[in-house]
Write a structure and sequence with these properties.
heterodimer; A: 246 residues; Rossmann fold; six-stranded mixed sheet; 26% strand; B: 346 residues; ABC transporter involved in vitamin B12 uptake, BtuC
């Protein structure tokens, strides 16, 4: 199925075309172009301040691009308000987790399914998430803010899954986690993909991300520095040394 | 080094003891004052307490508007008291002037209920428009900008009220009878029963909406993290509008009840009642719904007891007592009675 470019031959799902994003006078992303095909894991890597989270926030509609456009399944979504983008099938587990700390784990997961009305299926999805993260099952009635960082991270990913995403965006899912939990998170990401969800992943832990991804984009100070099949980037010692902090 | 450390520890201990002692003495003073009054005239005591709770219920309804808005956008909506005033003025001019419902007949009770619904709708719509016009664009601005806008909005509403009813307080005959009944020496005004009969279901409805409905869930999510709520598909603007509508409706209901129980409206009545209601919200722990209700009832009760009990400071000290208690409470419990000093993991 994989072509020699490392990409799947499936249709393009997310197409980010030459976007620039600015916070006031400071341009955080400059003319970025990237795409994600159905069924892929695509990773966006780069150092702090490279513009990774800005890109993800723009895709989810929390920021508006100054120029360029984003389309999802052929429909232009840049300019659509964030809450409507969720309805189209893009769910994000944001940087810093951003769980609702005064709600219980269960309520957080229910918030993930806010736009859905299919109660039976929501229940089934909740079971699936709890199966993916058994720790959450143990904490189901606990206030989310009282959990450990790793548990909160699982909750953030689980909450995004509750929206039945076609495209799941994960922003730094392994940040601040113990190594054993990092492995668990990456295993889970692969499992989620094998269940049919396309994934766009941003990671500081670039080598781990490259190991599970099909294709990678490397950002540096808001510009696209290079792109290529994940395996190739991971094996190129020069690239690893220069950009991936290997 | 060691001796200073011990010195510091001792001083801290002495401080804690002093704090506990002063709380104890204040408590002892208040209880003996209440006790003496209770023994001297139990029926009077209960009469006065019920009257206090009657005012407290109104404070609670208004306090909810402050606390809801603060909870969701961390804005102290200074215009809220004046919104309540417009609710009272609206009710007076509709019910008493237009509909001539000035006696207690069954038909007039129907008109009263209709006016209640209209006053709630009127204040809800007004509050939503205020947010849309004045506060929404300032949501990301430094906190002082929306705050001063709220103060400005308060004056605008006050002057709308001034043009509506004129500069002098205006009296109206009411549908709710001004008479009272006597149960074992305790005097209860019919209007008080009326207030409880309307306020309790409204409060229950409010709690239900916030805790059990989809819209309430969206409110709680937006209150905690707007961007995260957006990522769940919550329409943040709509949710904030809904919150203002809910707070406005409560102010409208309070406006009608005030007009019907007191029988007087004036353009500046929102200032004082608004301030007391805001105090209630702070006393209960701003952002906490139950806190607003508790704070409102408590302040009403304190005022009632202070003003009405034979041995007491009397009405002229009313505000001083309320705010004195507020200051004491803030010193010992800065987050308010039910407010939690939240410690959240980052």
């Amino acid at each position: 199925m994989t072509t020699d470019t490392g990409r799947l031959s499936t249709p393009v799902m997310l197409d980010v075309n030459n976007i620039s994003v600015a916070y006031g006078a400071i341009t955080a992303v400059k003319g970025l172009t990237l795409n994600v095909r159905e069924g892929e894991i695509v990773t966006l890597i780069g150092s702090n301040g490279a513009g990774k989270s800005t890109t993800l926030r723009t895709i989810s509609g929390l920021l508006k691009p100054k120029s360029g456009e984003i389309s999802f399944k052929g429909e232009i979504i840049s300019g659509t308000p964030g809450h409507e983008i969720v309805a189209k099938g893009i769910c994000q587990s944001p940087e810093g987790r951003r769980i609702f700390s005064r709600m219980t784990v269960e309520e957080n997961l229910e918030m993930g399914a806010f736009l859905r009305n299919d109660h039976a299926e929501i229940k089934a999805d909740m079971d699936r998430v709890l199966e993916l993260f058994p720790r959450l099952q143990e904490r189901i009635h606990q206030k989310a803010g009282t959990m450990s960082g790793g548990e909160q991270q699982m909750l953030a990913v689980g909450r995004a899954l509750m929206g039945q995403p076609k495209l799941l965006i994960l922003d730094e899912p392994s940040m601040g986690l113990a190594p054993v939990l990092v492995d668990l998170i990456f295993e889970t990401i692969e499992k989620i993909r094998s269940q049919g969800t396309t994934i766009l992943l941003v990671e500081q832990n670039a080598l781990a991300a490259l190991r599970i991804a099909d294709y990678a984009y490397v950002l540096e100070s808001g510009n696209l520095k290079l792109e290529g099949p994940a395996k190739e980037l991971a094996n190129d010692q020069a690239i690893v040394n220069a950009y991936l902090g290997g | 080094m060691t001796s200073t450390a011990i010195g510091v520890r001792k001083r801290i201990q002495i401080n804690t003891i002093l704090v506990r002692l002063s709380i104890f003495l204040i408590g002892l003073g208040v209880f003996s004052w209440l006790g003496v009054n209770l023994v001297r005239g139990p029926a009077d005591f209960v009469t006065v307490a019920i009257q206090g709770l009657n005012n407290g219920a109104l404070y609670a309804l208004i306090a909810l508007g402050y606390t809801l808005v603060y909870g969701i956008i961390e804005l102290i909506n200074f215009a809220h008291g004046d919104l309540f005033m417009l609710g009272a003025v609206f009710s007076a001019s509709l019910l008493s002037e237009r509909l001539h419902a000035v006696t207690s007949t069954p038909a007039n009770w129907g008109l009263l209920i209709m006016t209640l619904i209209l006053a709630m709708a009127f204040c809800a719509a007004l509050n939503v428009s205020i947010e849309r016009v004045a506060y929404r664009r300032l949501r990301e601005a430094p906190k002082l900008a929306p705050l001063i806008t709220a103060v400005g909005m308060s004056f605008i509403l006050q002057f709308v009220g001034l043009h509506w009813v004129g500069s002098a307080p205006k009296n109206f005959n009411t549908v709710i009878p001004t008479t009272s009944m006597n149960v074992a020496g305790v005097t209860i005004r019919y209007s008080t029963l009326m207030i409880f009969a309307l306020t309790i279901p409204l409060l229950l409805l409010m709690v239900f909406v916030v805790n059990k409905t989809r819209q309430g869930k969206a409110m709680r999510a937006v209150a905690q993290d707007k961007d995260a709520a957006r990522l769940m598909g919550v329409n943040v603007n709509k949710t904030i509008s809904f919150t203002f509508a809910l707070g406005g409706a409560m102010a409208g209901a309070a406006g009608l009840m005030y007009e019907q129980t007191v029988g007087t409206v004036s353009y500046n009545l929102g200032f004082q009642l608004g301030l007391i209601a805001f105090t209630s919200a702070v006393m209960g722990g701003i952002g906490n719904l139950y806190g607003a209700v508790l704070g409102g009832l408590l302040i009403g009760l304190i005022q009632g007891l202070n003003d009405g009990l034979p041995i007491g400071l009397g009405q002229r000290w009313s505000q001083s007592v309320v705010f004195g208690i507020l200051i004491l409470l803030m010193v010992y419990r800065p987050a308010g009675l039910l407010g939690k000093a939240t410690t959240e993991k980052v």
